[in-house]
Amino acid sequence: MLKCRTVWKKLAPLARASSTVCRQNVRRTGLTSSRIPACVPVAHMSTGPAGGGRENQLYILLVGAACVGGAIYTYRTVKGDSQRYQDRIEEISSRSYKRATAEPATPIQSEPSVILEPEPEAAPSLEPEAAPSLEPEAAPSLESEAAPSPEEPSPPAPDAEVAVPETTELPPADEPVVEASPEESAEPAAVPVVEEEPSPPSEPSPVELTELPPAPVVESEPAAAESPAAEPTEPQPEVVAQSAAEQTTTADEPVVEASPEESAEPAAVPVVEEEPSPPSEPSPFELTELPPAPVVESEPAAAESPAAEPTEPQPEVVAQSGGPAPDSLKVPSHTPYLLIGGGTASFAAARSIRARDPGAKVLIVTDESDPPYMRPPLSKELWFSDDPSVTETLRFKQWNGKERSIYFQPPSFYINAEELNGAENGGVAVLTGKKVVHMDVRGNKIKLDDDTEISYDKCLIATGGVPRNLQVIERAGEEVMKKTTLFRKIEDFKSLDKVSRNVKSITIIGGGFLGSELACALGRRSTEYDLEVVQMFPEKGNMGKVLPEYLSNWTTEKVKSEGVKVISEALVKSVVCKDDKLEIKLKDGRLVKTDHIVAAVGLEPNVDLAKSAGLEVDSDFGGFRVNAELQARSNIWVAGDAACFYDIRLGRRRVEHHDHAVVSGRLAGENMTGANKPYWHQSMFWSDLGPDVGYEAIGIVDSSLPTVGVFAKATAKDTPKAATEKSGTGIRSESETEDTATSPVASLTLAPTVEQHQDEYGKGVIFYLRDKVVVGIILWNVFNRMPIARKIIKDGEEHADLNEVAKLFNIHDD
Amino acid sequence: MSYCKQEGKDRIIFVTKEDHEAPSNAELIADDPNDPYEEQGLILPNGDINWNCPCLGGMASGPCGSQFKEAFSCFHYSKEEVKGSECIDNFRNMQECMQRYPELYPQEEDKESSQAEASSSSVSAAPTEGSALPPETDSTPATSTSDSTSLIDNQTAS
Prior knowledge:
A: alpha/beta, FAD/NAD(P)-binding domain, Enolase-like, domain 1, eight-stranded mixed β-sheet, five-stranded parallel β-sheet, 42% helix, globular, B: mainly alpha, Helix Hairpins, 5 helices, 34% helix, 6% strand, elongated
């Protein structure tokens, strides 16, 4: 505006000048026009400001346009501001309403705007009261959520803002649960009923508060206060409630909304009376969530409304929802230990915390629909099971005959989320199907995808990762994506199992652990189901990035003997869907026709929370960057696939193996309970490719490092199967860590014949060196020697003769 | 006789049994049993029980964890002639609790079987560390009569 003015000021003289000149010219022209019109030079081309009428007009036009534009802008801004303000207020109200518990709140909430506007009347009554009372009440908890609710009922549009803050503060009786307050205000009617309530009818208090500014008085007599305050009307709790809240005065709509609430309240009230206080808390939560307020629900709600308020005996009121509240919503609002992610690392941490902190309450939040389970059997043992219902039971037989489920614990091990805060001995609760979308490190809380907030004391991020996909497949379109599996979870296993029974050809892209294991598993099925299994990868041989070339080649031959068509040095150029079959074109021109693709090309660590939490992400390895004690911030730890940590011996790394998830999860759990230990116990990993190729490894096993391999000739006894039977442990990896299942299923095959042609690489030890120090070891068909390998890496010494070191393993012994 | 070949940066040595008969002269650094960084076994250097020992599986962290800890601690520190004889009540509590979760703590007569879930993690994670421990853990619950001890045995045994 100012600019406009200045500009105008500047141009005005010009305009005037030019117009004057213009007029003068015209006059002159006019005067002289009769004589020689053409003589007068029409200086319209002149550059001077007073140039001719045309220029003048141009100026005037421009200036005018600028002014008009400015005016429009100003108008819009002012309008927009007020509109935004309105929106914000409404948003706050509705937000607090949502949090507020009682269902009644919900209906009320849903109408915030409606209520706001239509209830000017209601507002006045509620508002004014709310205002004064609320102020005093300013409860400690100040949950903004609570605030909105009170707001809602009484929010007259103009005062809405005012009311809101007030209601928030209102927590009627110093209740930590502010939420209750909103309810309260909403339900004036509840007041009368509240009186009878055993639990402090916080609800009423707010209502009362509005009426009675002096908080103490109000609180002490929530019932009394409420009645008078609340509502103008009523003696009957039910009726009152409704009217009170909505202030009936007006709109049917608002009243209607209120009524469900109110009715819920009144009804609840009597019920509440009998209810023990604890339920109140939870109900608010739940209530809020369930807009329809059936009487049943209102009960808990009712309890809550009054309960919401301060009275509740439970201090944790805020925290929990539990109780009668309806299902799903029972999410505790605070938990001492919060574990984000429900995989191996998370479970190991939960166990560790529970072992070290007696009575600990641990909440696991996972976006999967299953409780924690182990992944290795999904690409190994489950495929070798003879049980036709294995996709349902998810049980597998270990080598020693013991059967177990892939789930770490049966469901009875966990307690319900809502009971978590009430459990006297604590426990582990799993919240499935919920994704954490936002993390507030400063406020120590996270937000779920359904807008629930959970605050924590200590948090573990164990979000793992998502399988990577090939760009060519992503770009290839819907048809191709439908025939592609990115394998990681239980449902991927189920769907691939189904697919393998129904198609003629499956191609696995990727030659690493997962790809090779799946290829071998499917290869075994190929004979039963007339299934062609193809595996393609850019390296020269299977496990090309892990095993030295000679061993990788040897392994590839083994995989081929499992019935897999291996295409090495294959780079996928494009994939198209033709006649319901997929055609994969390779860079070197080869064409592969198949029915289904399994992409096993790596894992992308899930660092979605890094942004909102402000956590560092590592650029070299991906994942959250944490220190040697797995700590990202003072009360945030990261473990498992998503953690890029500092290994004191081997340097910064990120490991995607099962045992590492167990070890790091356990360490994180220990550190969350005050152990302050760095990552020191080196984790191991293993793989079995068929019945007679199996190895265990530890440390950095990268084929680009120089290696020294010491081999002995293998005998029939040196197979994974033999190893497990012999040691009596049943599961090879169980001797190393817990919960690991390995051991390839005995496949009838041609073990003996294979052995004969077997090269020299029957069994042995391979050392990976970095600057002459052993940083990685593979035990090739040599089992139960991992502790020695671990020791060698831990020492980090330079050994002149690695053959001497190899002697420590007694590779010739069985 | 052993022989060696080099394939690029990778060295391959083939050895016979005789080659490896002579004891190794590779030097390993002596371990400090009290190293705080190391994974501890069932019994910590100061004599306490390491509840986080993988060998215990989920016993100390499950729903009956507190009862288990009480019973086992009582036993561990018992100085009676018949070790743990004063802990019968604790063990009874533990057994009662476990009976409420048959899925987690299978009450089978047959010791070895059905371990699978009971401790979920079962297996002693600490193999080497564990190798010294099993005898210890096996013997400790020896006097106990309840099923729980057999469970413990099972766990450590596996």
